[in-house]
Structures are given as structure tokens and as C-alpha cells.
Amino acid sequence: MSRAARDAIAGLYDHRLQRGYIRWKLSADPVYPATAAIIANQPMPLLDIGCGIGLLAQYLHARGIAQRYLGLDHDERKISAGNRAVQRAGLDARMTMHHADVSDLPTFQGHVALLDVLHYLPADRQHALLQASVRHLAPEGCLIIRNVLREPNWRFHATRMEEFFLQASGWIPGGAQHYPSADELRTPLQHAGLEVDIRSLRGNTPYNSYLVVGRRRR
Ligand SMILES: C[S@@+](CC[C@H](N)C(=O)[O-])C[C@H]1O[C@@H](n2cnc3c(N)ncnc32)[C@H](O)[C@@H]1O
Predict the structure, then answer these.
(1) How far is ligand 1, taken at its centre, from the CA of residue 10, in Å?
(2) CA 94, 53, 207: angle at the middle one, nearest 5?
(3) In angstroms, how far is CA 80 from the centroid of its own chain?
(4) Which range of residues forms the domain containing residue 69?
(5) Pocket around ligand 1: residues whose beta carbon is below 6 Å from it?
(6) In the structure, what pLDDT confidence band is assigned to residue 158 with cuts at 50, 70 and 90?
(7) pLDDT-derived band of residue 168, with 50, 70 and 90 as boundaries?
(8) Which residue has the higher pLDDT, 91 or 173?
(9) How many domains are contained in the chain?
(10) Ligand 1 centre distance from Cα of residue 73 (Å)
(11) Which terminus of the chain has fewer Cβ atoms in its 10 Å neighbourhood, N or C?
């Protein structure tokens, strides 16, 4: 994505610090291009669980990917900022964000994204959310998870430090609860009938991030 496109997205948000964060995130983190690449050729609605300020919606629009988008997040400030940005971009006819907890998913069928959300839930709630996410997949839909995985390396410890500061700053009240291992994600998804692919996805960040993609077995 060009610098001008990143600036245009950042300009949709009110706060200077938020705009700086958005520019950095869009230039350093491969999670949005990776998600776009997975869903671009399979147009269907996208449910973005834990959508934050809706950067994925803005990124998809900037790339010309015109799926219907429904985001949800339990942080009202982020939902308001995201919906203001959607309105400013003139996208509110097909993109919207709702204030809700992950345990309260709407009626929906399509692709499902869980980007950097799972570790804010305890292990048992992660398991329940994985099951619910699979139930919201359309037959050809993809479950796209990006998360830090628990591994004995310095990147994992760098992630824990970052999360400490995020919680202290008030950006993510409550903070990280449980970092899943690769098997904690793979096994329940396979039992739910998905083929699962897991690969490293950290781009220019120091974090121990992975992309986990689930598709129904044919
Ligand atoms: C690191 S942010 C990721 C935002 C977005 N997915 C992205 O990648 O741009 C994690 C988000 O998960 C949300 N979240 C955490 N626990 C949640 C819960 N129980 N219900 C809904 N949202 C939750 C937080 O409010 C936060 O916006």
C-alpha cells in the first residue's frame, strides 16, 4: 500500500497519536495484506471479531475489495472511532461496526477474522470462540486467525512486554490472559472439520505472530 493510501486512511481518524499508530501499522504489519489475499477471490461477507478501530475494513476498501463487512468489539471508543471513519469514507452502506462482546456474535455466514484477539480471553473462552467462529463460516468461507503463539523464544517475550505497556496505557483494558500454543488452535479446528494451515506472520514487527487459516474439508 502506498504512503498516500496510508495517509488517506489515517486522515479518517480524529486523534494525532491514533493517526501515527495507523501509519505505522499499515506499513509494518502484514496482517491486512495477508487477509486480503485470502478473501479477495471469494467475495462473501466478512465478520471481523475484535475489530478495534476497523483498520481491516479501511484496508480492504483501499485495495478495492468490496465485501460486506461487519466488525464487532467490546470497546465502545474504538467502535465509535471506526464507525466515524467508515462514514467519512462513505462506506457506511456496506461496512459497519457494532459494540458487542465476542460471546455475543450476530447471525452471520461468511468469512470470519480473529486478528490479534484470542490472547485477551482465557483459555476456555478461546475454545468457545473458536467453536462459534466455525459455526459462522459459510461453506466456502475462511477462518482467518492472526495471533501470537506461546513459544520459548525472545519474540514471545517481546510480545509479552508490548502487551504489558498496552495494558498500562489503557489501550487494551484487561490485557493478555492466555497465549495459545499452535496445538491449542489446530486441534479444535481440525476436530470441527477444518483443514488448518499455520505460518509465521510478523513482517517488520518483533512479535511472535502467526497466521492460522481454516477451511472446511471437502
Ligand atoms: C490488538 S486489538 C486488534 C484489533 C483488530 N483486530 C486489528 O487487528 O486491527 C484487539 C481487540 O480485541 C478487542 N477485544 C478484546 N477482548 C474482547 C471481547 N471479549 N469482546 C470483544 N472484543 C474484544 C479489543 O477491544 C481490541 O480492540
Answers:
(1) 19
(2) 125
(3) 17
(4) 3-216
(5) 50-52, 55-56, 73-75, 78, 101-102, 115-117, 120, 172
(6) confident
(7) confident
(8) 91
(9) 1
(10) 6
(11) C
- The mean per-residue pLDDT over the stretch 98-107 comes to 97
**Residue 217 scores a pLDDT above 90:** no
Ligand 1 test: best mutation among 117, 121, 162, most atoms within 8 Å of CB?
Answer: 117
C-alpha 117 to ligand 1 mean position (Å) = 5
Instruction: List the residue whose alpha carbon is closest to atom 8 of ligand 1.
Output: 115
The domain that holds 105 is classified in CATH as: 3.40.50.150
Rg (CA), the chain: 16
Q: C-alpha grid cell for residue 52?
A: 478495534
* End-to-end C-alpha distance for the chain, whole angstroms: 34
pLDDT at 67 over 70: yes
Instruction: Identify the residue whose C-alpha is closest to ligand 1 atom 10.
Output: 117
